[in-house]
């Protein structure tokens, strides 16, 4: 199954993406994680992306299309993949459809996670992430250890108030039209399924799995 997770910053794409991918037995591809790893390693791609990411702006489409192409061609993704935040502009949606068609595959569903801006700001303001495996946490201080891999929890630079505000605006301006694009193309491909992202993390996972019939 090929699933795309869409939703504003803090909606829980990363949290739910990991759970849904584990349930389906397919890998999770999160462009945010790929880019943060590149920044950490100081690769040319990471150095080019850092400024956009720190401000909460989108990284240029050609960078994202390159990541998509490379990841989807890997044997591990052949049976399906959970694409977490991989599409945020209409050219990226068109690009993904093309890459998948070239591989003889298609998107099965777009899961859209919804929450109010107040809830998103509250979540992002309280988040720390593992600097190694990137697992997000709530209510854990920077400097504490990651339960999964023992890495150190840090605050993301784009979780500062000005960057959070910008990310919410960028979502409305550049990513909301992607939803219209998928709705307009629903007949030819992926179903668009909305998931209420507010509630206990387990409950949201159950809603998402139910929406995709699992
Ligand atoms: P990315 O890392 O994907 O950031 P984002 O989209 O802003 O999403 P977040 O990771 O902030 O939130 P999330 O929805 O994954 O929520 P999470 O599960 O962590 O991208 C970062 C940057 O990379 C972008 O700004 C851009 O610059 C660049 N980029 C990436 N992809 C790109 C693309 N395709 N095109 C261009 N640029 C791109 O949860 C948030 C918090 O809430 C956590 O603390 C979590 O524990 C908590 N939480 C989760 N679920 C619940 C719940 N049900 N109840 C209470 N708390 C919850």
Tags for this model:
single chain, 214 residues, alpha/beta, 3-stranded antiparallel sheet, 15% strand, globular, binds BIS(adenosine)-5'-pentaphosphate
Number of strands: 8
Structural class: alpha/beta
Largest β-sheet summary: 5 strands, parallel
Poorly predicted sequence stretches spanning 5 or more consecutive residues = none
Structure notes:
The chain is an alpha/beta fold and 214 residues long. It is built from 8 helices and 8 strands. It has helices at 13-24, 31-41, 44-55, 61-72, 90-102, 117-125, 161-184, 201-211, and strands at residues 2-6, 28-30, 81-84, 109-114, 127-130, 136-138, 153-154, 191-196. The strands form 2 sheets. Strands 2-3-1-4-8 form a 5-stranded parallel beta sheet, sandwiched between helices. It has a 3-stranded antiparallel beta sheet with strand order 6-5-7. β5 (127-130) and β6 (136-138) form a beta hairpin. α1 crosses α8, α2 (31-41) crosses α3 (44-55) and α6 crosses α7. The N and C termini lie close together (11 Å). The chain binds BIS(adenosine)-5'-pentaphosphate. BIS(adenosine)-5'-pentaphosphate binds at residues 7, 9-15, 30-32, 35, 52-53, 56-59, 64, 85-88, 92, 123-124, 127, 136-138, 158, 167, 199, 201, 204.
């Amino acid at each position: 199954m090929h699933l795309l997770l869409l939703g504003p910053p803090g909606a829980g794409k990363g949290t739910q993406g990991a759970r849904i991918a584990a349930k389906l037995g397919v890998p999770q591809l999160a462009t945010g994680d790929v880019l943060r790893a590149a920044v950490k390693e100081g690769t040319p791609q990471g150095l080019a992306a850092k400024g956009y990411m720190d401000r909460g702006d989108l990284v240029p489409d050609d960078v994202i299309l390159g990541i998509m192409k490379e990841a989807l061609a890997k044997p591990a993704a052949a049976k399906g993949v959970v694409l977490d935040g991989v599409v945020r502009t209409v050219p990226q949606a068109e690009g993904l459809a093309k890459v998948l068609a070239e591989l003889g595959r298609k998107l099965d569903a777009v899961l859209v996670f919804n929450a109010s801006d107040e809830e998103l700001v509250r979540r992002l303001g309280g988040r720390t992430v593992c600097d190694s495996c990137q697992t997000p946490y709530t209510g854990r201080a920077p400097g504490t250890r990651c339960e999964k891999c023992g890495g150190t929890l840090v605050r993301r630079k784009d979780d500062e108030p000005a960057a959070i505000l910008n990310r919410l605006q960028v979502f409305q301006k550049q990513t909301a039209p992607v939803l219209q694009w998928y709705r307009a193309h629903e007949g030819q491909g992926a179903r668009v399924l909305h998931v209420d992202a507010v509630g206990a993390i387990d409950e949201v996972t159950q809603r998402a799995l139910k929406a995709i019939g699992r």
